Amino acid sequence: MRVIDGAAGGGQILRSALTLSALTGDPVTIENVRGSRPNPGLKPQHLAGVEAIAAVCDATTEGASEGSERLVFEPTAPRPGHYEVSVGTAGSVTLVFETLLPLATAIDGHLSVTVSGGTDVKWSPSMAYYRHVKLPLLRRFGLVAAVEEARPGFYPRGGGEATLHLAPSSLEPIRLLDRGEFRAVRVYSTESADLTDADVAARQADAAVPGFLAETDASVTERVVRTADSPSTGTAVCVRLDYGGTMAGFDALGEPGKPAEEVGQEAADAAADFHAGRATVDEYLADQLVLPLALAGGAVRIPAVTDHVETNCAVMAAFDRDVSVELDDDGAILSG
């Protein structure tokens, strides 16, 4: 039985520990779940992730209840099929997907999981980021995965729905040390239907184009503006930068009283800051690549060594998987 102390971080420790347990077959106990948070223990989003991976692995669990600070997880091998889980709140759908995504390397048939909850909410990748940045990048290295979104869900009611589709995959070493030539910008902007008359999504998209683009030969090659019914009012915008060897994404969410132009500019500014450096992936994808690097090896230039990177590397070490960080003048290199 592996034992993981979750006191040093949040839900990422839980997700990574469950995924590695499912892939290795080693039972795991996570103690002090989200111990560093003001409201520790399993929240609905985390519990949905536990329920989803437990169903896929026909796992035995102890402590799988809201508020629990200790979870025991004993899996069998991941099984193909279709599964459904509801967060029940606006908790992140994409973070539930994070627990399941690496299982593509262990299944022998098609696996799909439909999750309802928040598709575009704080402290998690937006649905556009997941569909248009993370998955396309991982597909380059052999991960066969796609997401089908039925409807968006915003805070506070959630109500969004999406399905993660996985096929048997063999992940290749992830080598991303040089960006290559800057090629294009893509913008994805979403609004709830009640904001249609104000053209919020279009205004966000217009403001999300980074200013540095005018100084290059590249252009906006894709601009997707969409309106969709959702139980709560909300907007989201994602900017993707395309390079010869990689891509990076930057999210911003609308809030009451926050102009659409300010939302778009927030994403554009983040993209400009990234472009000024030499990293090959954005800050948020950096910690999400720790587990794939532990599985397949490789090396990735990241913009900074965040707490999430460090805690995720520690979870890998607890499962005898080595992912290291080497600092240099241009940021850091994450190696598996």
Structure notes:
The chain has 336 residues and is α/β, with parallel strands linked by helices. The protein folds into two domains: 2-172, Alpha-beta prism (UDP-n-acetylglucosamine1-carboxyvinyl-transferase, Chain), CATH 3.65.10.20; 180-275, Dihydrodipicolinate Reductase, domain 2. It contains nine helices and 16 strands. The protein has helices at residues 11-24, 44-57, 93-100, 127-139, 200-207, 260-275, 283-288, 290-296, 307-318; strands spanning 2-5, 28-31, 60-62, 70-74, 81-86, 111-117, 145-151, 160-166, 174-176, 182-192, 219-228, 235-243, 247-253, 298-302, 324-328, 331-335. The strands form four sheets. Strands 1-2-4-3 form a four-stranded mixed sheet, with helices on one face. Strand 3 (60-62) and strand 4 form a beta hairpin. Helix 1 (11-24) packs parallel to helix 9 (307-318). The longest helix has 16 residues, at 260-275. It is globular.
Précis, in short:
By secondary structure, this protein is an alpha/beta fold. Helix content is 29%, strand content 29%. It contains nine helices and 16 strands.
What is the strand and helix layout of this fold?
Layout: E1 2-5, H1 11-24, E2 28-31, H2 44-57, E3 60-62, E4 70-74, E5 81-86, H3 93-100, E6 111-117, H4 127-139, E7 145-151, E8 160-166, E9 174-176, E10 182-192, H5 200-207, E11 219-228, E12 235-243, E13 247-253, H6 260-275, H7 283-288, H8 290-296, E14 298-302, H9 307-318, E15 324-328, E16 331-335
Parallel strand pairs: 1-2, 5-6, 9-14, 10-11
Antiparallel strand pairs: 2-4, 3-4, 6-8, 7-8, 10-12, 12-13, 14-16, 15-16
Helix pairs in contact: 1-2, 1-3, 1-9, 2-3, 5-6
